[in-house]
């Protein structure tokens, strides 16, 4: 009994040290071999935030897969979307804790690279989830949605919905220097059949994927051009914020909003008519595959490599001709599974 309590105490101490370092408080660290005090291999998960439902689901998937494979999950996150320093600190701490692998959704896809390389140099396998690093091969592998395709699908949907009529388009983007945001934006333009600088693009604003910022960005865009009738959004929180602004302007039902994510709240937004269509992705699957890859690496040294497409599905409130989509019932059944 005393030995069991002692082991629990040690594991609790490691978790506490991790929490302190992520918060910016120095903590003692000791190098390890990838196994916890009870012999379990340790795997780290670093997300952009702890509160975004997308990353909450990702953490659930990672925990379930870690439990199924007998691994110990250590999770950390930035204080906000774009908190590169918080993620750097988390990597440093996980190196010291002796994890066998790190799964990360990088906030700053270029600035994080030197610290990722430090982890790889220490023999840790690093896998990017959802968001590729810049360059992509800075990690051992990438498990993610094809974000360009996700944008392309909603762009093609919008083009078919407008049936050749011109549009006044607002793009509510993520933030500069984040590959996932640029890929979705560029994919939308291709799907709609236009290029950057097209006169139909009347307003663009960054939202950091936040609902309140999405609302204020849309309010500003509507002040700039009250005739906006098509809105591309980086994710569903931004889309729901945009809808609030559109509704307040008395233009509900006149503006088509398309998005990416396919979370349960977002699919409800499609059912309610707030979002016309969204590209559904599967963060739980990303995390599950990532943890399983670390388990395989720990078992026999097999390293994951390259890009694994975890899938994307267009979910639409009303289908359009020529663009394959699923209905709301499908979206609800598969939201972030």
Automatic annotation (TrEMBL):
Organism: Phytomonospora endophytica
Signal sequence bounds: 1-29
Name recorded for this polypeptide: Fructose transport system substrate-binding protein
PROSITE patterns per UniProt: PROKAR_LIPOPROTEIN
Domain Periplasmic binding protein: 43-299
Compartments (UniProt record): Cell envelope
CDD domains attached to this UniProt entry: PBP1_ABC_sugar_binding-like
Main location: other
InterPro entries assigned to the protein according to its UniProt record, in alphabetical order: Peripla_BP_I, SBP_2_dom
Coiled coil spans: none
Record's keyword terms, sorted: Signal
UniProt record similarity statement: Belongs to the bacterial solute-binding protein 2 family.
GO molecular function, one term: carbohydrate binding
One GO CC term, this protein: cell envelope
